[in-house]
Amino acid sequence: MFESFIRITDRYLELCEAIIQPEVIADTAQYQACLKERAALEPQAFAWQQYQGLLEHIAQARSMLSDPELADMAREELNALLPRKAAMEQELRILLLPRDPDDGKSVIIEVRGGAGGEESCLFAADLVRMYSRYAESCGFRVTALYTQETELGGVKEGAFSVAGEGAYARFKYESGVHRVQRIPVTEANGKRQTSTCTVAVLPEAEDVDVDIDPGDLRIDTYRASGHGGQHINKTDSAVRITHLPTGMVAACQSERSQVQNRARAMQLLRTRLWEQKRAASDAAYAENRRIQVGTGDRSERIRTYNFHEGRVTDHRIGLTLYAIQSIMDGDLSELVAALQAEEQAEKLRSLT
């Protein structure tokens, strides 16, 4: 482990030196690559520096044990420093764990109503709001791609992008079936109902990830529907792109401009094609995603939102939080932290 951190720190210092060289600054591509690599190595280099400082303090305390006048103080200091050393070594092990190559990417999130009719669509709208608020609290930029609304304001199907460094690392745990238990606004007799929504979180593909032949595309324009004002509803600004070889369709109607909607639809299509390409080359990944997203059946849930009891339970890690209102308002920090910790623990177990 120590050898790895020495190599990482040496490389980090090399990059710090490189980015101040005039020839590197003049080469935009090389400069950006150096900055990106340095940012990726910075957490490990900084943690190793802190660990080295801690070891120096421990060595100083041990050297004081031979002095009768300082021995008691030295023992007290060691009692405080040694547990910190063990904790910091665990942190260093975690920093060396294999990193998901998609963790730094932006994401596209797709939400669909599942079992439960109109109530499932209303809950889908609540999930879109929850994710949007959480993304904004993390400093990410949220952009709607398309929304198929119901008459009561629910979301039958919708997609939006969350742009920012590390978005996938925070949202990747949300893929799957989300179950809600509450009294629907459509229920006149006050009877509780169980409904579901499905969520898919896709790391956003870059231009270099997928090569799309323009000749393989059919692009249709149409009039947007739903909320959006007179302009969006009275001009053919919505765009639907069909990838003819695969039959895959991506649409966007959220922008006023047809050009903007076309760019957004291409972004969505590229991401879906990239995911399909990755899944085809990795059967294990494909099966894992099938299990995650499922069919929308109530029994396939990863998380339950019980409004009557005020709780949210994540069934994958057995965590229950009695804070449903704050969670629905976008405070997913405790849930995400717990899921990240479990992922790290699982990786550590696999290495032992």
Beta-strand level of the residues, as a percent range?
Answer: 15-25%
CATH top level label of the largest domain: Alpha Beta
Largest beta sheet: strand ordering: 2-3-1-5-4-9-10-11
The helix count comes to 11
CATH fold descriptor of the largest domain: Alpha-Beta Plaits
The largest sheet is: 8 strands, mixed
Kindly describe this structure.
The chain is of the alpha+beta class and 352 residues long. It has 2 domains: 2-95, Methane Monooxygenase Hydroxylase, Chain G, domain 1; 101-352, Alpha-Beta Plaits (2-Layer Sandwich). It has 11 helices and 11 strands. The chain has an 8-stranded mixed β-sheet, sandwiched between helices. A 3-stranded antiparallel β-sheet has the order 6-7-8. It is flat. Mean pLDDT is 86; it is low at 228-232 and 288-298.
What is the structure about, briefly put?
With 352 residues, the protein is α+β, with helices and mostly antiparallel strands. The chain is built from 11 helices and 11 strands.
Topology, please?
Blueprint: H1 2-18, H2 22-26, H3 28-63, H4 71-95, E1 107-113, H5 118-137, E2 141-149, E3 155-163, H6 167-171, E4 176-182, E5 193-203, E6 217-222, H7 229-234, E7 238-243, E8 248-252, H8 258-281, H9 283-293, E9 301-306, E10 311-314, E11 319-321, H10 324-328, H11 333-351
